[in-house]
Amino acid sequence: MFFFLVGGLEQQATRMLKSGAGKCVACGSRADLVEYEKVLKLFFVPVWRWPGKHPLMRCDNCNLFYPPPPSPPIDVMRCKTCASDVDPSFRYCPFCGSAL
Ligand SMILES: [Zn+2]
Ligand SMILES: [Zn+2]
Known about the structure:
- This protein has 100 residues and is mostly beta strands.
- The chain folds into two domains: 2-66, no CATH class; 71-100, no CATH class.
- The protein has one helix at residues 2-6; strands at residues 7-23, 30-42, 45-51, 56-59, 65-66, 77-78, 85-86.
- The strands form two sheets. Strands 1, 2, 3, 4 and 5 form a five-stranded antiparallel β-sheet that branches.
- Strand 2 (30-42) and strand 3 (45-51) form a beta hairpin.
- The relative contact order is 0.18.
- The model has no long low-confidence stretch (mean pLDDT 88).
- It binds zinc ion (2 copies).
- Residues 24, 26-27, 29, 59, 61-62, 64 line the site of one zinc ion.
- It comes from Dorcoceras hygrometricum.
- It holds the Pfam family Zn_ribbon_15.
């Protein structure tokens, strides 16, 4: 298809959020957390651009964009009595009422 020879969708980093936030999933190089925009190009001219919804990781080395790894789970305490997941700031289990 001719369209795909002369144009395409590119992702471009627009703003650095966190330098060296992770490692590239493809080559293992340093990757940054960035805000990005998608750019539609026709004949190498940007004709339309719109911002990405979520920040992405971008590799310094191979320019790969990929979703950041999920943030580490927040600490959850487990009630010893009923085994429910409980916010660690609670002193009593909201499910069974036993002291934590
Ligand atoms: Zn890479
Ligand atoms: Zn409980």
